[in-house]
Amino acid sequence: MRERLSELWERRSFRVLAYVVFAVAMFGIFLVLTFPERRVRQIVTVQLEKALGHQYDVSIAELGLWRLTGAQLEGVQLKERVPASELIGAEGGLAQQIYVERISARFAPLGSLLRRGATVNYQVDIGGGILSGSYTHGSKRRLVSVKSDDLDLRESTLVASFLGIPVFGQLDTDVELELHPTRPLLTGGEIALTGRQFTVGPTVLRTESLPVDLEVPMTNFGNIVVRAHVESPEGGGTPRLVIDTFETRGRDINTEFWGHVDLGAQMGKSRPRLEMRLQVNEEYVTANNLGVVFNMTEFRNGRHQDWYGFTLGGTFQDIAFRGAATAARGPSEAKAPAADGEAEAGDDEG
C-alpha cells in the first residue's frame, strides 16, 4: 500500500490534486471556526424584513454554513406586524405567523454558467417534506424552479400557518417559471401539481364579503390534478396564465376550473377570466347543515342538474363571482358559441 501511495505521489497531477483538496478542507474548517454567526444573522434578519416590506418581524434561531458556498437558516419565524388596536375587541384577530423549519441556499457556479445568470440552489424544509429548486437572475430573464415529492401537508407547518386552515394530504409539485428581469411579472413557465387525499378544515372563515362567519366543515377534495402554463404574446402584450387541467375528485366534492388569467405586475390587479363548476355529495351537505349555503342566489342561478357553475371576473382584489348554469354543464359546453348558450338558457327558464 505504501509503495502504491509513493508511486502516486511521484505524479505531479496527483500532488496538485492533493494540495487542492487539502486547501479546500482547511478553508472549510477556517470558515466553520471563524464564521460570525451573530453578526450575519442580524444582517440577514434586517434584509429579510426589508424584502418583506417591513410587514413582518423576522426571527432566526440558528444560522450556519451550507456546502461551503451557501448558508443555512434554522427556525425561521415570520410574525405579521399588526397594530395593537386591531388585536383587541370582538372583531380583533391574531397576527399571522409563518414558521419554516430550515432554509438552505448556496451559489451554484456550474448552474450559473449553463443558465447564463447568477444561480442559487435552495432547499426549504417546511415540515412534512422538502421544497427544492433554483433561482437564476440573468440580464434578460429570471428563472425559478420548485419541486417536491410526497409532501405531507398534515405535517407542514408552513402551509398550515400560511393558509390559516388545517390541510391534509400529499402533494407533488413541479414548477418552472420565467419572470421579467426587473419587474415582478411572469412571462413563461409550466405548473404541475398532483395531490392525493386532499382535505381541508374544519375552520371558520371571516371575510368582509360575508355578513356572518362561515363555518367550513372538514371537506375531502380527494385527488387533485393541476396543469397550467404561462404564455406571452409575440411582440409584447399581457402575459396570460392558461389552465390546461384543474380538477378534484373526492368523497365530499368534485370541482373543475378552466379559462385563463391576464397577469398584472401585482397579483391583485391580475384579471381572471375563469369558469368553474362543483358537485357536492348530498350526505355531506345534510350532515353539515349546508343547505342554506347552496340555497343562496348565486348557487341557485348556477345550478344545472347536480352541478353548480360559476364565473370569476373582475380583478383578484375586486373579484366578480357569478352563478352561471352554462358553466355547470362543463368546459365543452361552456365554450360553445354564445348563441347556443343563450338558447340553452332560454330552455332552462322555460
Main sheet makeup = 15 strands, antiparallel
Amino- and carboxy-terminal Cα gap? 95 Å
Relative strand content: 35-45%
Structural class determined from secondary elements: alpha+beta
Radius of gyration equals 26 Å
SSE order: HHHEEEHEEEHEEEEEEEEHHEEEHHH
Estimate the helix proportion, in percent.
25-40%
Q: Give the helix tally.
A: 10
User: Judging from the principal axes of the Cα atoms, what is the shape?
Assistant: globular
Describe the structure.
- The protein is α+β, with helices and mostly antiparallel strands.
- It has a domain at 31-99.
- Helix content is 26%, strand content 44%.
- The protein has 10 helices and 17 strands.
- The strands form 2 sheets. It has a 15-stranded antiparallel β-sheet that branches.
- It is globular, with a radius of gyration of 26 Å.
- Residues 29-34, 88-92 and 336-350 have low confidence and may be disordered.
Present the secondary structure layout.
Blueprint: H1 2-9, H2 12-34, H3 37-51, E1 56-66, E2 70-80, E3 97-107, H4 109-115, E4 118-125, E5 130-137, E6 142-152, H5 157-163, E7 167-179, E8 186-200, E9 203-205, E10 214-216, E11 219-231, E12 240-249, E13 253-262, E14 271-280, H6 282-287, H7 297-301, E15 303-304, E16 307-315, E17 318-323, H8 325-328, H9 331-334, H10 338-349
Antiparallel strand pairs: 1-2, 2-3, 3-4, 4-5, 5-6, 6-7, 7-8, 8-11, 9-10, 11-12, 12-13, 13-14, 14-16, 15-16, 16-17
